[in-house]
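Researcher: Structure prediction, please.
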Amino acid sequence: MKQVSSNVIQFRGSHYDFGRFQGSELVNSPILTARRRQLKKRAKHHYIVDEEKIRPIIQHFNPGIWEELLGLADALEISTKEALREFGGYYFEYGKSGCSILTGNQFMIRNYDNDPITYEGRYVLYAPTDGGYATIGPSMQITGRTDGLNEKGLAIGYNFINRLRSDDGFICNMIARLVLEVCATVDEAIEMLKEIPHRHSFSYSLVDATGKTLVVEASSSEVVTRIGTVCTNHFEKLTKENRYRMDDSLRRYEAMATQQAEIGNVYDAFRILNDTDKGVFSKNYGAWAGTIHTAAYLPEHMQAWIAFGSDRLPLIFDFKKWLAGTSVNAKQIKGELESTNGFINE
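Model: Predicted structure follows.
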């Protein structure tokens, strides 16, 4: 068993100041070293970071993110081009992963599956003062989010489908961040997901404070929606984008679908994804498909739950109280995984 922990990060202020704050925290952190090592391994792709091309695209969807990148660059004493390459969420290769999502009219439960060596161990609560909604959720590539909830009660999570036929565009974690900061409802999120350029094929599950929930299937060439409360790693509409091997994705899908009738409350739904005997939680860490966290988002109650490892009670964050000005007392979220690798923050 590997002991793991995620740092709880809280910030209220402008995007630029948030960028500088994060940069100052990263200067002496192993996260930056690990991320640069990962970038070096992907150097064969030779991405051309065109600042003049990417800046207006980011500013169109959320100008605050650009300011955050500038703050990171200044704090880390790197160029804007370097900040874009490392934290911009545009281009970058995404390793194959698992992931399972179950939604209802009052919740989203999400298993984030990957190799722990890619996981930053940063759980972020951020309230911008220069535009954009406050958000809560785990970070990915510092500026992006693996999943999350915003102050309007919109929750989002995503599942990897394919990285073939990729094109210029944003990757999943930055797309999640943009949606959370800009959109208040499922309908608004759909509009953004149809407009934003997608680099890879992903499914995006959404639920909002009205109880509306659906799935957006997005590739670099097409974006469609479908009604559904269960989502794994295959498309139901854009089937040409699916990978050749879908056995495990279909198995997890069926496990969630058949147990939905047993759900009496949100905790029951959480147990379906977090308990090892329910058939959804994965320990396949060596294949980039082990469950790192199980997260739950409750739009009506404005709560965010998270647990690292299987068969665990979640740590519950009262986001409503935090929005009202009460800081979270927790400094770290601890757990354990049946993996040889820990998080890159260690």
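Model: The CA atoms of residues 95 and 192 lie 24 Å apart.
Researcher: Thanks, that helps.
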